[in-house]
Hints:
Elements: H1 4-25, H2 28-36, H3 46-52, H4 57-70, H5 80-98, H6 104-111, H7 114-121
Helix pairs in contact: 2-4, 4-5, 5-6
Amino acid sequence: MNTQPKLLTVFLATALTAAWAFAAEDGPIKKAMQTVHKAPKTEKKLSEKIIEGTATDEEKQTALALYKAMADAKAPKGDDAAFKAKVAKLISATEELVAKKPDAIAHYKEAVNCKACHSEHKPN
């Protein structure tokens, strides 16, 4: 019995899975998390600066652009529609910040609930 076709199928499936995982790691979600929600120990996270009201207009625009890029990403884990709804809420709240609307910071604070998103959508 020739096992080469089976080995080739297994190899291709593994390679495609690895490529997808690598792309997800370097995709728009990771970029947004790295830029907005993480910072070196000596600096404040951009998300913290936004909540404190000390983020510049340019920083808010950066966050908004990164969140909008996430809208086209597939949920890394869990229900894609739930993920998209959370991202849409985050985008809406950040648009309010950019427009300097009242209660925008409160809406952003609610939308940026890391645990709510990570518990459902962050891969292990």
